Amino acid sequence: xxxxxxxxxxxxxxxxxxxxxxxxxxxxxxxxxxxxxxxxxxxxxxxxxxxxxxxxxxxxxxxxxxxxxxxxxxxxxxxxxxxxxxxxxxxxxxxxxxxxxxxxxxxxxxxxxxxxxxxxxxxxxxxxxxxxxxxxxxxxxxxxxxxxxxxxxxxxxxxxxxxxxxxxxxxxxxxxxxxxxxxxxxxxxxxxxxxxxxxxxxxxxxxxxxxxxxxxxxxxxxxxxxxxxxxxxxxxxxxxxxxxxxxxxxxxxxxxxxxxxxxxxxxxxxxxxxxxxxxxxxxxxxxxxxxxxxxxxxxxxxxxxxxxxxxxxxxxxxxxxxxxxxxxxxxxxxxxxxxxxxxxxxxxxxxxxxxxxxxxxxxxxxxxxxxxxxxxxxxxxxxxxxxxxxxxxxxxxxxxxxxxxxxxxxxxxxxxxxxxxxxxxxxxxxxxxxxxxxxxxxxxxxxxxxxxxxxxxxxxxxxxxxxxxxxxxxxxxxxxxxxxxxxxxxxxxxx
Length: 495
Hints:
Blueprint: H1 3-6, H2 8-24, H3 32-55, E1 65-73, E2 78-84, H4 89-109, H5 114-133, H6 137-146, H7 148-158, H8 163-191, H9 198-201, H10 208-225, H11 234-241, H12 244-269, H13 271-276, H14 278-297, H15 302-321, H16 326-357, H17 373-386, H18 393-408, H19 410-434, H20 452-470, H21 473-490
Antiparallel strand pairs: 1-2
Helix pairs in contact: 2-3, 2-5, 3-4, 3-5, 4-5, 4-12, 4-16, 4-20, 5-6, 5-7, 5-12, 6-8, 7-8, 8-10, 8-11, 10-12, 11-15, 12-15, 12-16, 12-21, 14-15, 14-19, 15-16, 15-18, 15-19, 16-17, 16-18, 16-20, 16-21, 17-19, 17-20, 18-19, 18-20
């Protein structure tokens, strides 16, 4: 094996961090072009390096692969311990892929403090890969908290008029929610024979009281991150104030970390408590799916509408997780990947309009397709995917979760299926008023269609949405064995 093969995960974590530091060295905005080129080039290199995670992945085993292990703080058994399975590997590929899209978007949209902007995203990319590959709980916690800093700066520096309020609210919600998770890790460390390994936590016998308390501790961290109802209020503020790239990463990657946390910790570590509280989690998920969809219907700000749409779609993720079936878990995973493409594309489309007219209000637009036909075609495609149209990736995950829900309860399935109607309602309502209709604002007549970088980033996402909508097997194949193993862990009593 080569050095790259043996240390692939470390390279994927630390290479973008080092490139981010290099970008900072380019200095002020006089070297903005160089900063953008380094950012785009390094993100492409990191993505290409991540492809062997997929091509070299053994789909027949649930064991961790590409494992790296070294003693870190030997006295307390804290390790630098990395590895991936069929649950984490697709999320790493999603992270490296979407960072390229963000860098393409930065080519034309970012004008001030360019080096710092590019560096923040590159550093955050490495930290997010660290979250998905860490197998030591303290290492996981450090990556989990560290990635908040670049996003806090991205919202606080390049955000909208209320960026300071939104960035502080985002930081406090996610930070405070994670503190109880750390307490749970310390408790598990003591009862597991002083090991911080996540896989060792699976074998710790816990009574139902201990499991319930640990589940609640995990819930405070992961439910806020998704975010679940009723701890979702930070997300619309963060999205509205964040720059376009920040909204893309926030919706497409960071929200998925909550779902990943439930899969990696809650189900295998606290299976009995997860089963006992599954009814509560399903109810909260269905509330998010339906109620938040109605909230999206009344939004006048495009970003707020898509932000609430994200909360509704992520309700499908938690619904599928707590059905405790392979079909439900696979549907949740596919939904997370698909939502990464679709929500990222929707926010990029809004960013394209905002860069031209500096308004996110739906009432500002109308008849955009008449002056931006290429843009209009992309918006319609992504809107259909957001509404779950068959043939797009948005349909696959939701369909699997609804089928899994129907096997458990017809009531769950009917309520969940309402989102297909509501999703179509709020998405197509926005498209009708923005893209079609009569041009009532003379400023719309001055709009220019997509430039090359904008066309490239939307075209790449459109290809991904259609590819996985028509051929989801590449995703389902790599996650199936790991999901089956997780179902066994989640249904094995520890009491």
